[in-house]
Amino acid sequence: MASSTSLPPSPDSDWASHDSGAQPGEHRELGFRRKYIFSTDHKVIGIQYGLCGLAFMFFAFCLMMMIRWQLAYPGQTLPLIGQFLPRIFGPGSMPGGKMTPEFYNSLGAIHGSIMIFAAVVPVAFAAFGNFVVPLQIGAPDMAFPKVNAASFWTYAVGGAITLGSPRILEFSPVSFRQPTGSSRTAQQSPASLVNLLQL
What is the pTM (predicted TM-score) of this model? Predict the structure, then answer.
């Protein structure tokens, strides 16, 4: 029998059991979660990096606007959202809607960290690199697509932890806030994470 001759498919073969319009080389369409959320396609991962980076950039922009408000109107209550921010950033951050100096400094540090590590570098390198480089070199996909997808999810979870860090600092074992009338030393926090773990 010649190698160019092919046998007809058996009736119990995998593709024959599906709809009658399916051809031997076709595959079924992926669902929404597999295609757009947990994708291994380099273009989708590049778009995910870009959208996630823009979301982190928007959060950093909001922090920067709070800093600008404090510079423009020092010691005044932040309108509209000032009363809700202590619930997000902790009770000592904005008592009465007014920003404390320690919270102002932490906003600058968090804004800078988010802009560098969660917004600018991922958008500039990961988003454009994932989307454009395989297209430029003519590759069908990245070398290790599952590792590429895992790197995006590591980035997204790490960014979420960074955004949650002001709230996480409330449970840190050592508080670096200066208590009233004391010297600049690290004080043991009464509701520390170490105490919570010892229960």
Answer: 0.68
